[in-house]
Amino acid sequence: MINDKLRSLTQVNAAIVACEKCPRLRSYCAAVAQEKRRAFRDEDYWGKPVPGFGDPKAHLLIVGLAPAAHGGNRTGRMFTGDRSGDFLYAALHRAGFANQPIATSRDDGLQLIDAYIAASGRCAPPDNKPTPEELNNCRPYLIEELRLLQDVRVIVALGKIAFDNVLAVLAERGVAIPKPRLAFGHEVVYQLDRYTLIGSYHPSQRNTQTGLLTPTMFDRIFQRARDVINASVVTG
Q1: Domains contained in the chain, number
Q2: What is the pLDDT at residue 29?
Q3: Domain that holds residue 55
Q4: How far apart are CA 56 and CA 118, in angstroms?
Q5: Rounded Cα gap, residues 65 and 193, in angstroms
């Protein structure tokens, strides 16, 4: 628990934005927001920890790694304003989890439908590599989000770090995790108590440009999520 007074997603998000637990990350995000990328030099960068985003009644929770330095750290919303987000939101739109396929800013009209997006780390890390301590510092936020997202039945973990972090969060929530440790892979599916955990390659530019992750492969992830959700609604 972060704080017994955090009884809503709005309060959790406010705590995330105000977080100062990791000096290295806060310094890095502030420096990036000051220096900016030339293409965005006329924009005001967010430069703070990035909160979760989506439908509070979601059956689907998507967990990423961390905001991109010139993506979420610039726009203030997860997977918004970068190539990873372009790939993710296009897939979510095709699967019916988003009302539009693009995400450029917090006021672009994007809405998630029965889905919520969170992350293992809430600050953009140098070289996209948060330390284990930094991930530990952030984990209570995801624990609280999962507690408050009471309708979640499917968790899609984007990448191994997110996958391992979700397992740690579920363990903290009292879910029994089988041993030996569950292996990450694309399209691996595990039933853990009431949650169906699905692993997916992260939609990073490197993965999508090399073909490690294709639109068809990504569509299968969210179709599987949709199938599980539909089945859970039918069975109650």
Answers
A1: 1
A2: 97
A3: 10-235
A4: 12
A5: 24
CA–CA separation, 59 and 210 (whole Å): 31
- Answer whether residue 58 is part of any domain: yes
Residue 57's CB is within 10 A of a number of other CB atoms, namely: 11
Give CA–CA dist 25/224, Å, rounded: 35
Q: Is the pLDDT of residue 17 over 60?
A: yes
Lookup: tokens for 122: 């809430």
Does residue 5 lie in a domain region? no
pTM higher than the cut 0.85: yes
Q: What is the pLDDT of residues 29-64, one digit of tens each?
A: 999 999 999 999 999 999 999 999 999 999 999 999
Is residue 6 pLDDT above 80, yes or no?
A: no
Cα angle 220-221-223, degrees, rounded to a multiple of 5: 60
Whether residue 126 is preceded by a cis peptide bond, meaning omega within 30 degrees of 0, is no
User: Residue 60 is part of a domain; what is its CATH number?
Assistant: 3.40.470.10
Q: Are 131 and 25 in contact (CB under 8 A)?
A: no
Q: What are the start-end ranges of the H helices in 66-214?
A: 72-75, 83-94, 132-148, 160-172, 205-209
Could you identify the residue written with the tokens 């990073």? 204
